[in-house]
Amino acid sequence: MGMTITETSGLGRDPDTEYEEICRWLGAIEFAWDIEKSLEFALFRTYAVPSISGLLVRTGKFETEPRKRYDDTELLLSEPMEHGLDSDRGAEAVTRINAIHGRFRISNDDMLYVLSTFVCEPVRWCAKYAKRPFSDDEVRAWTNYYRALGARMGISGIPTEYAAFDALNRAYEGAQFRYAESNHRIAVASLDLLLGFYLPRPLFSLARPAALALMDGPLILAMGFEPPSRGVRKTVERAMAARKWVLGKLPRRKKPRLITARRRPTYPGGYVISELGNGPLRAAE
After folding, report:
1. In this predicted model, what pLDDT tens digit does every residue of 28-39 receive, in sequence order?
2. 56: nearest Cα among 193, 187, 239, 174
3. Which partner from 57, 102, 128, 218 sits 20 to 30 angstroms from 87, CA to CA?
4. Taking a C-beta distance cutoff of 8 angstroms, is the pair 47, 189 a contact?
5. How many CA atoms lie within 13 A of 37 on its CB side?
6. Full-prediction pTM beyond 0.70?
7. End-to-end CA distance of the chain
């Protein structure tokens, strides 16, 4: 599958047969920054499930090398999206993901929940914060892409429609979100890493409430954070509304924003897909 992306390359395509092209355009052109941020928050939500955060603590890598783990995860998920699920690079990335997951005992329910966050969070985020919400065809294409990815990861019980993913996601969070020390440890490491992309460390304590204002109450409580004040929430809401208005006035991006092409301090000389996520990982008990 080709990788050419133009400002109109995702328009007018069939969401059931050309979902990869639509999703590639959504992620690289139409909602480039918003989808990247929403997927960061999607992963962050999974850390509120003790079985997931506990596994991350036991591997011993998330807290000691948070930037490397972030980069490895983002690159492994972006390779199939930007190059095609069955392209050489995309297939190699999926194989690597499966090899990493195969080292641990991860329940199908947890895998299915994580997949549901990748489906649901970008749709929800763009409805609230982007220049416009996903169209119905874009939601269908986005759902179909992650259904295809999940099938290649060997996940069973994958829903066929977005509404079913949304219901599964909400039910799982309602049943599984609860505080655990591992949640807090992974959340602190992750949030500090994300804040560090924009701010020096001395400003983290000031910025953390603003970041938390983008999260809902059950998530904040499960992470063990102090909820932001109503004033902070209002300020963040106004700032995001202003950004949404400005984005709506700007012309569409012309040059694709490719995650796999980004220079990273973790890999100054480039990366090899088969070596992403490497290191002395220990099997979970």
Report:
1. 999 999 999 999
2. 187
3. 102
4. no
5. 16
6. yes
7. 40
